[in-house]
TrEMBL record, chain A:
InterPro entries: ABC_transporter_permease, MetI-like, MetI-like_sf. Residues 76-289 form the ABC transmembrane type-1 domain. The chain crosses the membrane at residues 20-43, 82-101, 113-134, 160-184, 214-234, 268-288. It is found in: Cell membrane. It holds the Pfam family BPD_transp_1. It is a multi-pass membrane protein. PROSITE patterns: ABC_TM1. This is Sugar ABC transporter permease. Keywords: Cell membrane, Membrane, Transmembrane, Transmembrane helix, Transport. CDD domains: TM_PBP2.
UniProtKB/TrEMBL annotation, chain B:
The chain crosses the membrane at residues 12-30, 70-94, 106-130, 142-160, 181-203, 209-231, 238-260. It comes from the Bacteria. This is ABC transporter permease. InterPro entries: MetI-like, MetI-like_sf. The keyword Heme does not apply. Belongs to the binding-protein-dependent transport system permease family. Its main location: membrane. Keywords: Cell membrane, Membrane, Transmembrane, Transmembrane helix, Transport. PROSITE patterns: ABC_TM1 (PS50928). Residues 71-260 form the ABC transmembrane type-1 domain. It is found in: Cell membrane.
């Protein structure tokens, strides 16, 4: 009898477990697991979406098609250029600001509140504000002119347009990573610094030999997050170019290209294949990064 | 520490300069929203409007009848998504941390795996699934796919694992079942974690652009980010209206952020640090 009591209790426990998990399992199943499997199916099919939806198996043809597509090359190049410039700059800026804010600074919490503002503001609004500031006779050019620096056609010049978005993105994302660095800095035990001081290490030595090495795991996290975020650039370039990726494809990013193929050209299978490629690139870069950071740790 | 004293003025100037760089675009946009178009076009650099006017705000609500609707849609969608997330993520996090059931570990592993999959993969299939459900251009289409979030399930699980067990055991002795314990004991004590989660989820939903862009084509169903984008197309050089609309969109988010700032920063460190 005692045994059956325990059994029924266990069953009750299991039942409430599933009950608690039910909404999550349902939603993640339908809108996450199913889409992941579905996307592999789509990527290998030609999809007719107007009228009756129909699928025709085409194997890897979508993938081979992408290698011959000049717009894929352009989008990939823009996206890579964007990642390679934005990620290092925003990481170093975040680190520098965090190191300064970690010192005995008055009004620390005010600076944090102010710096964090762009993070909570939508990309749509930030992009509009910046487009207006970038306007050829707008605020930025006015300021540059006043101090005697060259002005640019920030929105219309294909050589500059992507850089305009980079500046905006670094400005709005660096503070988020700064907060993460700040948290990590607080976790470094003070006795390490005290011991180093006794050994005669100056402030620079301590920064190089204690602070930066101990920040490595967080830096890894921040670089990975930065890469994932920048690879997925969409809102800014969509709004900036009115969805076209212009001027002259200068702001055409990979996600924008996927969006265009899927929802403008209704070329769903091809767009799904491109999305799959992007996801694989992101996962690959993350994996390589993890490897690199581990190797450094071993040395 | 003496050295940092010596460099202190430099550090303060860097921080103040950066604060100005951060604040200026907001201040500039806010001021433009109270300027008549003529003053903006003229290109003067006055931060304080010389001819202060409310006309821009009146205009966007009256001349563009859909603007109020977009605001309503955004509030509705963000509030529903936030409430469901708080409930469902907490339930799942609690079950994963505390309830023993077969498959518990497997589900947890699945949620961790899901965290690593880039969102673009699910974009197009989700669109097709919503289409076949007949949920394009609907509130449920915007809300339902976002009512749970793997990141916050993970966060809630970590939170509940460190939760004192004794309270729940006492509740069980008092004859409360799991569900009652969860509502009456566990959730009220999880308020800080819920607050942090609420802010993040709300901001995410409030600012989301790609998902609404994908599934909404009826302007009456637009949320503010989308509305704002078409607004820009309509009023291409009416920066006074565009800035007023941007401020209506931004101020609620900034107010919530300022109010909950403490939780906000805390939760960044929570999700980021380790």
């Amino acid at each position: 009898m005692f045994k059956s009591l325990i059994k029924s209790q266990q069953r009750q426990e299991a039942f409430s477990g599933y009950l608690f998990m039910f909404p999550t399992l349902l939603i993640l199943g339908v809108f996450l697991v199913l889409p992941i499997l579905f996307s592999i199916f789509l990527a290998t099919h030609r999809v007719q979406i107007l009228g009756e939806v129909s699928y025709r198996f085409v194997g890897l043809r979508n993938l081979t098609r992408s290698t011959a597509d000049p717009r894929v090359g352009i989008a990939l190049r823009n996206t890579l250029e964007y990642v390679l410039i934005v990620v290092p700059v925003q990481t170093i800026l975040a680190l520098a600001l965090a190191l300064i804010l970690d010192l005995k600074i008055r009004g620390k919490s005010w600076f944090r509140v102010i710096f964090f503002m762009p993070t909570v503001t939508s990309a749509a609004v930030l992009t509009l504000i910046f487009m207006w500031i970038y306007n050829s006779n707008g605020l930025l050019n006015n300021l540059l002119e006043k101090v005697g620096l060259p002005t640019y056609n920030w929105l219309g010049d294909p050589n500059v347009a992507l850089k305009s978005i980079m500046i905006m993105n670094i400005w709005s994302t660096a503070p988020f990573f700064m907060v993460i660095y700040l948290a990590a800095l607080q976790d470094i035990p003070t006795y390490l610094y005290e011991a180093a001081k006794l050994d005669g290490a100056n402030e620079m030595d301590r920064l190089w030999n204690i602070t930066l090495p101990l920040l490595k795991p967080v830096t890894f996290f921040i670089v990975v997050m930065g890469i994932i975020g920048t690879f997925q650039l969409f809102d800014q370039s969509y709004i900036f170019s009115g969805g076209s990726g212009g001027p002259n494809n200068a702001t055409l990013t990979f996600v924008l290209l996927i969006y265009q193929y899927a929802f403008k050209n209704l070329d769903i299978g091809y767009a799904a294949a491109l999305a799959l490629v992007l996801a694989l690139i992101i996962m690959l870069v993350t994996a390589i990064q993890r490897r690199l950071f581990k190797d450094e740790k071993a040395n | 520490m003496k050295r940092s004293h010596f460099l202190q003025p430099l550090f303060y100037s860097i921080l103040i300069a950066y604060a100005i760089i951060t604040l200026f675009p907001f201040a500039w946009a806010l001021s433009a929203s109270f300027k008549p178009l003529a003053e903006i076009v003229e290109g003067g650099m006055h931060l304080i409007p010389q001819h202060f006017t409310w006309e821009n705000y009146q205009h966007i609500f009256t001349a563009s009848p859909l603007f109020g609707r977009w605001l309503f849609n955004s509030v509705l969608v963000a509030v529903f998504i936030t409430s469901f997330n708080l409930l469902f993520n907490s339930m799942a996090g609690y079950a994963l941390a505390r309830i023993h059931f077969p498959g518990n570990n497997l589900i947890f592993a699945l949620i961790l795996a899901v965290l690593m999959v880039p969102g673009q993969i699910t974009l197009i299939p989700t669109f097709l699934i919503l289409k076949s459900l007949g949920w394009l251009n609907t509130y449920q289409g915007l809300i339902v796919p976002s009512v749970v979030n793997a990141t916050f399930i993970f966060m809630m699980r970590q939170f509940f694992i460190n939760f004192p067990k004794e309270l729940e055991e006492a509740a069980a002795l008092d004859g409360l079942n799991r569900w009652q314990t969860f509502w009456q004991i566990v959730l009220p004590l999880a308020k800080p974690a819920l607050a942090a989660q609420a802010i993040f989820v709300f901001m995410g939903a409030w600012n989301n652009f790609l998902m609404p862009l994908m599934i909404l084509s009826d302007p009456a169903m637009f949320t503010l980010p989308l509305g704002l984008n078409t607004f820009k197309g309509q009023y291409i050089s009416y920066w006074n209206y565009i800035m007023a609309a941007s401020m209506v969109f931004t101020l609620p988010a900034l107010a919530i952020y300022a109010f909950f700032n403490r939780y906000f920063i805390h939760s960044v460190t929570f999700t980021g640090g380790k």
